[in-house]
Amino acid sequence: MTVTDNGAGINPVAATAQGRDPRLSGPPRTPAEAVRAVRRRVRAGELGPWPVIFGLIVIAVVFQSLTDSFLSPGNLTNLAMQIAAGGTIAVGIVFVLLLGEIDLSAGSVSGAAGALMAVLTVSHGWPAWLGILAALVMGALIGAFQGTIFAKIGVPSFVVTLGGLMGWLGLQLLILGPQGTINIPYDGFVAKLTNTFLPRVAGWVVTVGIVVVYFVFALLDLRRRSAAGLPGRGMVSLLIRTIGLGLLAGSVTAVLNQGRGVPLALVILVTIVVVFDLILRRTRYGRSIFAVGGNIEAARRAGLPVDRIRISVFALCSTLAAFGGILFASRGYSVGQSSGGSDTLLLAIAAAVIGGTSLFGGRGSTYSALLGILVLQSIQSGMLLVQIDTPIRYMVTAAVLVGAVILDSLSRRGRRSSGRE
């Protein structure tokens, strides 16, 4: 006997009448089916990225009505450059949140890694690539150390990384020494990471490449599902989604090309998001992360190496935090005692949560980091343009974060009531 979801749980009687579970019947094929599918997903707490996308539209409309420069090529170019560093750190935070844990040391790790890179490349004359590699290795070692204490000894991740927040800040100050601030050469490789713009033709090539890669992977997935006898979205749906992505990416490229061009920093961030999304969704390691975050005891009984997965995730988070610190140094042409401080950590965590990653583990994607950091930086940019004071900016950001957590809690309650969690 099959089952069906009536919005409040499983109803075997209705299942017998209808013959199959609508959740297993593939994509909707008529407008009526589409409406029913949307209602069912909303009742079950399956909101997806739509609240964030709707929020971005509202933000754009509000600030564009207050100042006509919000959607200008110049401001959007600056916005694209500003999200790279914080978005990179947020991707690492997403992985930790998928485990149902937290890493409070990411901001300090980014500052310490940036300081190490600057000292090695500027003060000691190391090649830029070697200094960057050393900073990334340091980040990985820090994450593995913290993850080992958490996974093997059993100290809560909150406590371990809270200690790391203070400890790695001390390491950052020790690395910088009495000089306090190290300037990055304007014409150096590190500075060019976030201050380089693609030629217009190259921007279009990258845009077309992104759309083609999406279509190829989606097509392969569709064929695999079809060969396995599983329902899929269908070729028409795939073409519509690909065209939609092409229009969106093409619009962004066209606007940015009216200014200085597509920033290399944006290409780096999008590449990180796409690569790690593929790792999460298409590799055994990624599926293991979801399994551990969803139900750790079930993961253990399934034979998954839970401790190794946890340690590796914390190492990955700190490595991405280190790279985020390098991007921050590149963007500001310097590393100082305040690097990685202020609201760096809070914005990274807020971006992951606002984008749709659950604080309770087992649900989320790297795209939530991209969407979340875009929301936060859009709000920050808009408020700066309309000259809103700093205290108000902090309060608005806090309100957005709390609202996202409330939405996550309500969605989780809906999934429980519908038997999906």
What characteristics describe this protein?
membrane, ABC transporter involved in vitamin B12 uptake, BtuC, 17 helices, 2 strands, transmembrane, disordered N terminus, 421 residues, globular, mainly alpha
Entry summary:
The chain crosses the membrane at residues 47-67, 79-99, 104-122, 128-151, 158-177, 197-217, 238-256, 262-280, 311-333, 345-362, 369-386, 392-410. Helix content is 72%, strand content 1%. It is mainly alpha-helical.
- CATH class assignment: Mainly Alpha
Structural class: mainly alpha
Portion in beta strands: under 5%
Number of strands: 2
* Basic shape: globular
Q: pLDDT under 50 segments (min length 5)?
A: 1-25
**What Rg, in angstroms, do the CA atoms define?**
23 Å
Taken together, the total number of domains comes to 1
Average per-residue pLDDT, rounded, comes to: 84
* Through-space gap between termini: 21 Å
Secondary-structure element order, as H and E? HHHHHHHEHHHHHHHEHHH
Which CATH architecture would you pick? Orthogonal Bundle
Largest sheet: 2 strands, antiparallel
Query: What is CATH's topology name?
Result: ABC transporter involved in vitamin B12 uptake, BtuC
Number of helices: 17
